[in-house]
């Protein structure tokens, strides 16, 4: 017999070799029908895998990420099985589950798989799923695995196997399809009821632009057709909210092949919005005693060697800049933190000087492969709302809590009320990925956990997701249509102060190392604006929107009065524009509502004679007439109420 510990702490005895499926059946038949995977001692397993020793377990249903992961991972294999049947000789790269669905990278040889081929692949998947094929796990030696995939002529799998240690390799088979895979998977394909293949893209093998470009097919599946129908409606809404589409319509930003891929150009309206966000954060930072600094866009290569960034990211960054002086190399700045360490070292520091809080809207550069670029969310040049706090160890938790307060203020101001927190810690089984001593890591991890407990913030713990120099607290925001975005981040770092030999003189007159906190509430201005556009569908809060008001003269005869009204509003800090096109008023109203301008002021003969404006509010229609002074007072009061709340 073995002891099985359940999530509520209860312990029951079962026969050795019991499976997750059998455990679920021992609780209830309904649970057995709904469960998709099991955690055994915090490792995700197949439901059919025997448990041979005492273990702590948790059963996962569709609502759990682990359950979805097993479902979509199995769906990737189902798609691969269908592709193998439809395209004899096709070769397979990798096919993981992702946040929403799955993909598989394949090499179809001379055949080209296009979007209009997807319905036929879907149909084959449905046919195979209906057979309820068992998905069977098998341990295999490295030699046998290499032999198997060599015989199939699948060089992508043999390359992957070559990187694996013997004794760690598993295969999964269903029907005529066998794949190299760690799992976990569903017990059989019959659970997969609703299937939609979404798109076809190109992807370089192992992310290397010098390797062959494979065909990447994206898809999503569900256990019920109703779920798929709801998701497809969500996809249509997401298309309407696409920040690239809205950004173009509202003239916020652009890209130019001449300037370069992944290098955004901010247009005047987008710049106004972005600067207002920056000003908002700067006001908050002043309340928390931050000091603004400005650092260069490049730095000596040795700076990033010292920080550890070059060893970790050098091969994936823009290559060094060589100056006319022999041996002198610079890098485009990939991070602001090494520069801020040097600012700290400018002069001797005392324990009385701490904490020091240096903030910068610093533009950094990272080389993203062209296939990974996506609007403002994946770019090669972006501006971080970066700050680095240097404090004594006894100040760490209090400073961490204050940074959390700043993030909550921003989320509230921009209506991101639905968010989750994630504590990202080291991978205990792969510590060579990280720099610094175990003692410092333990202290940093403990500080984050205690700060979350003190705030009453329920945070999910993820092993292996820490930055290479320290653990972090990340905030995942859900937007208006339920999508998750990683935005704010706070990181605790004992290691860069060691590497840069940062010091302060303590009360004991001895030298001590400060602790460093990295924080970016927005994350990057580019990504944050993209998420904000899609969250609001371009209807920004009144305090933030580039144009709060547009004045619409009924005909050209009233253009002068429209400009007079606009000038009066401008002098009272209202952001206003005039639409003096020679168009009918109905067309002007429709066009400016499409531009998401909150207030439309219509002026004609009656308004000019009485010195008023006819007010329309976006989404609410007519609001009556008032003088420009009354309107300015109303709109400024509305903005003031918003800002006072924050």
TrEMBL record:
Which PROSITE patterns does the record match to this protein?
AA_TRNA_LIGASE_II (PS50862), TGS (PS51880)
Q: Which cofactor does it need?
A: Zn(2+)
**Annotated InterPro entries:** aa-tRNA-synt_IIb, aa-tRNA-synth_II, aa-tRNA-synth_II/BPL/LPL, Anticodon-bd, Anticodon-bd_dom_sf, Beta-grasp_dom_sf, TGS, TGS-like
GO terms for MF: ATP binding; metal ion binding; threonine-tRNA ligase activity; tRNA binding
Q: Could you tell me the keywords of this UniProt record?
A: Aminoacyl-tRNA synthetase, ATP-binding, Cytoplasm, Ligase, Metal-binding, Nucleotide-binding, Protein biosynthesis, RNA-binding, tRNA-binding, Zinc
Q: What class of enzyme is it?
A: ligase
* CC annotations in GO: cytoplasm
Q: Cite the binding residues for Zn(2+).
A: 337, 388, 518
Q: Cofactor binding mode, per the note?
A: Binds 1 zinc ion per subunit.
Domain of life, per UniProt, equals Bacteria
Record-listed E.C. numbers: 6.1.1.3
Q: Which Pfam families match?
A: HGTP_anticodon, TGS, tRNA-synt_2b, tRNA_SAD
Annotated TGS domain ranges read 1-61
A single GO BP annotation from the record?
A: threonyl-tRNA aminoacylation
- Domain (Aminoacyl-transfer RNA synthetases class-II family profile) spans 242-553
Spell out the reaction equation it catalyses: tRNA(Thr) + L-threonine + ATP = L-threonyl-tRNA(Thr) + AMP + diphosphate + H(+)
Q: Where in the cell is it found?
A: Cytoplasm
Write down the PANTHER family for this protein, in alphabetical order: THREONINE--TRNA LIGASE, CHLOROPLASTIC_MITOCHONDRIAL 2, THREONINE-TRNA LIGASE
Q: Subunit comment for this entry?
A: Homodimer.
- Please report which protein family the annotation says this sequence is part of: Belongs to the class-II aminoacyl-tRNA synthetase family.
Q: Can you say what this protein is called?
A: Threonine--tRNA ligase
According to its UniProt entry, this protein's organism is Paludibacter jiangxiensis
Per the UniProt record, the lineage of the source organism begins with:
Bacteria, Pseudomonadati, Bacteroidota, Bacteroidia, Bacteroidales
